[in-house]
Amino acid sequence: ECHPEAAFWAMNERTPLAEPKKLRNRLHAAGLEKRRALLIRHGFSESFLDEARFHRSQAGSDDILDACACAWTAARIFRGEAISFPTDVPVDAKGLRMAIFA
């Protein structure tokens, strides 16, 4: 499992982002731009992020950035680079890992 804010934390050299993506229940431009810049720094093209637009009823701009952050984490899991919370990952009765990855 992944959480986008954990992914952005990992992209930001394991430092929490100072800018929220939402402020008073509204999208916060500075926070969105910081997350977009992190995605670009970690391999997403500007053109892809510019063109990844959906009708607001389908997905907001913050949802697109979050989905990209989770895709980034999925690639890190595949390559064995992801950080897990907790570090010593427990498994359930079916052998599934029970952790958040970034």
Describe the secondary structure blueprint for this structure:
Layout: H1 4-11, E1 22-23, E2 26-27, H2 29-41, H3 46-51, H4 61-79, E3 84-85, E4 100-101
Antiparallel strand pairs: 1-2, 3-4
Helix pairs in contact: 1-4, 2-4
Separation, N- and C-terminal Cα atoms: 9 Å
- Percent of residues in helices comes to 40-55%
What is the tally of helical segments? 4
Strand order of the largest sheet: 1-2
The average pLDDT is 94
Q: Determine Rg (CA atoms, Å).
A: 15 Å
Backbone structural class:
mainly alpha
What's the total number of strands?
Answer: 4
* Low-pLDDT runs: none
Largest sheet: 2 strands, antiparallel
- H/E topology pattern: HEEHHHEE
- Binned strand content: 5-15%
Overall body shape: globular
Classify the oligomer.
single chain
